[in-house]
Amino acid sequence: MDRNELGKGLAVITGASTGIGYELAKCAAQEGYDLIIAADETRIQQAAASLKEFGTSVQAIETDLSTEDGVDRLMEAIEASGRSVDLLMANAGRGLGKGFLDQDFAEARKVVDTKIVGTIYLVQQVGNLMRSRGEGRILLTGSIAGFMPGSYQAVYNGTKAFINSFSFALREELKETGVTVSCLMPGATDTKFFERADLMDTSVGQAKKDDPADVAKIGFDAMMDGEGDIVSGWKNKLQAAVANVTPASILAHQHAKMAEPGSGKE
Fold it and tell me: Boundaries of each Ketoreductase domain copy (predicted)?
């Protein structure tokens, strides 16, 4: 069976139950890609039902992407499909607010394991398959948070700094292989992130946020064009530019004013 009979191609999206991940999956479905979507919650099944309205094949995998076993389960589903992955959008992540010493360590580790360990494990496996084929597109969801020390979000911002850096390095390594790597770096986006991270009583939690559909479309288009990095929204572009020339100690102090518990009540 040739590729035309199978459809336009296969897109794999993690963290696709809600927010930016769901909207990225929607972008791919609207372009005619079949989907394998994954998340660690049952809501991924509801997302799949909605995405099937676009007329492409959608398979939902409920799995814990912070573990190697969880990523292996996703890889098994990819292998069972008999398809090559054309687009990989590694979006899975977790947030966590409050001071680092006040956080539950298991929760802090989950942030690291989901965004860093699980992500690079998945990217290495799918990336090797793409490289051997000589084609493929990878989009990682970083953040402008990765440009600044995240007081009261220290672990989360640290994971985003890693992803931002990792994506540029991997892009350079793969530049002659036919595989492109792009990094989407949004600012605060209107998703369930702030509620799940217990940040609703902070200034950033209360502030106006970007539309996840707009953010995803910007990232998806940039990935398809083979661009290396995408900061969505002019305010975020300005914030990223300022962060690059501002001392880290000042950035940490500014971030504290946004993310300190109770700062949204002032």
Answer: 9-191
